[in-house]
Amino acid sequence: MDTFIHFTNQTQGRDRLFRATQYTCMLLRYLLEPKAGKEKVVMKLKKLETSVSTGRKWFRLGNVVHAVQATQQSIHATDLVPRVCLTLANVNRVIYFICDTVLWVRSVGLASGINKEKWRMWAARHYYYCLLLSLARDLYELSVQMEQAARDRARREQSLSQEPLGYSVADEETEWLQSFLLLLFRSLKKHPPLLLDTVKNFCDLLNPLDQLGIYKSNLGIIGLGGLVSSIAGIVVVAYPQMKLRVR
Known about the structure:
Elements: H1 2-8, H2 11-32, H3 39-59, H4 63-74, H5 80-107, H6 116-157, H7 169-190, H8 192-204, H9 206-211, H10 219-238
């Protein structure tokens, strides 16, 4: 109970819950729309989704400041690749939140002369760049962990290593694939924050890919991806030790 109270007292925690609700409504709408007699339920889900999306914009108004602070912190990362990827990703996050704020200003009627479609595409583009850079950082971190796991495995097997006889090319390719998948599994299992961050960024990528027309998806795929990403975000907010740290 204390964990839940602490979670809901945080702006990020409430935003994650609203986001999970929003994408759950989207997913349910997609599943129920083809069924006859579900028109009223679908309309209620659509209204709830719109209301939750509007409410989330209030939580995101201060995110520009948080993104600027994250940019300042990432500049001081010791490793070059994460420093470059995270700094550029956070710069794009700043621009995305600025665009998002402009869209909010238009939606509440404070400025009617704003081109909604243009700002929406700008927001989607910079969000897309942010996620690509974040995924690049995740892949780099994963490669580092896999390399370390391979070295540890080689040291353990050094005393038992013998060159096997009678290997075909197919056997070697199969062994390489099995070793790669095993290292991947062990690396992600040993580092849950890296797994959560990778899954979250990959699922988030589906929305801007659809908005920019790079890869069109239906509401079901976007809703499912957003829900999985939201659950990963809830875990990170509820348990800060699950957040991927900057080295």
